[in-house]
Amino acid sequence: MSNPNLIPPIANAIANGELPLGVFSNPALFELEKEHVFAKTWNFLAHESEIPNAGDYVQRYIADDSFIVSRDKHNKVHVVLNACRHRGRKVCSVEKGNTRNFSCPYHGWVYDLDGALINIPYEDEGYGKDAINHADWGLMPAPKIGIWRGMIFANLDANAESLDDYLGDAKWYMDFYTNKSEAGLEVYGVPQRWVVDADWKLAADNFVGDGYHTFITHASTIQAGMLPAQSGDFLLDGVQVALDHFGIGFARQDPLFNSLAYPPPMMEAMRQRFNPEQVALMDQGVSLPTHGNLFPNLSFLNAPGAYTAMAPPAPYMTFRIWRPLAAGKTEIWSWCMVEQDAPEEFKQASYKAYLLSFGTSGTLEQDDAENWSQITLPAKGTMASKLSLNYSMGDGLLEPMNDWPGPGKAYPLDFTEFAQRAFWKKWITTLEGK
């Protein structure tokens, strides 16, 4: 699907530091996104810790497509389309489990863990002996899959660049989330899911670079101690990094944010894992990064959160997917991630802090979702859809830092819109097929 008249005015607005409000509720744009964004980029599906044993599987999605992510008896991970090759029925209707094979409930075609067709009921009587080549009729595999630090991605474009190439310089920053210990990460609990009447891009935009909203939107959580900080003023001294496909924010000054409340033994383990330039940032009073987003819709958040009145805050980390369901409707997927070798007491505290802050009914989660829905709703209007939004914060005011050790352009403030502007430029050029 293509609409040559839809893109140019949006591209011109983005080039001028503006954005039409209508992009958050436009059915034609949504169809273009499915075709050019989600079918052409790397999509996060699962973490290997969710399928640790042979026969384990989870059901995951890329926009409208359902996939089975499984581990076979040879310990190999597979990603196959969840649609029987006979009539297209979903062969897997549950979200996770362990099995020897997948059997279609409609006519009973049976597939192995890798998607290979292994049995057709009454095959000889219905088709003739050896009439069907089973090798040609297995479940359709995702054109490309990639695994990095236990994170399983898929790409629907067989000609796409490798996952390693796509991540590129973003890996330097993703290290802070994924490389804290030798054992690596694991999913604690199961991913939570819920649907909001909001556009997926609003969530990605928020996590890629919107430090500005924190001390306004989340002021009540700071005052109540749910977001532990001495005041919102700590946001005035941070760092934001903008790459073309990745944005990330660091906080500074506030003592609780300097180490995100990680206990000293875990901090020491990080120092052993990080490279010298990454360690130097920690020594300079820059905290571990808090929010980030990998284009298009994989977000990260690492922060301290209160989980009981009788204990100091605990750090939590969440990976999040903003799955588009329709124009202006998103299914949020949220994983709680912990270091595999962390003490169980730490894991439990981290999980509780996550649930209270960014679980389905978490205090900060509700703040954000309300904002996003209250932007998406007016975006449906005829007049409002033509409204231009201002995305110029920091432009002409801030210059990139000369002494920043990492890749990309770093700016000495986290509430600025450089990373958000980079996100929108990446979005529009992807829609244009560039």
User: And the CATH topology of the largest domain?
Assistant: Naphthalene 1,2-dioxygenase Alpha Subunit, Chain A, domain 1
Number of strands: 21
Poorly predicted tracts of residues: none
Distance between the termini: 16 Å
Helices, by number, come to: 14
The CATH superfamily of the largest domain is: Naphthalene 1,2-dioxygenase Alpha Subunit, Chain A, domain 1
Cα gyration radius (Å): 23 Å
Task: Please give the CATH architecture of the largest domain.
Answer: Alpha-Beta Complex
Main beta-sheet annotation: 9 strands, antiparallel
CATH class of the largest domain: Alpha Beta
Shape: globular
Query: What is the residue-averaged pLDDT?
Result: 92
Q: Structural class given helices, strands, pairing?
A: alpha+beta
What portion of residues is helical? 25-40%
What percentage of amino acids are in beta strands?
Answer: 25-35%
- Tally of individual domains: 2
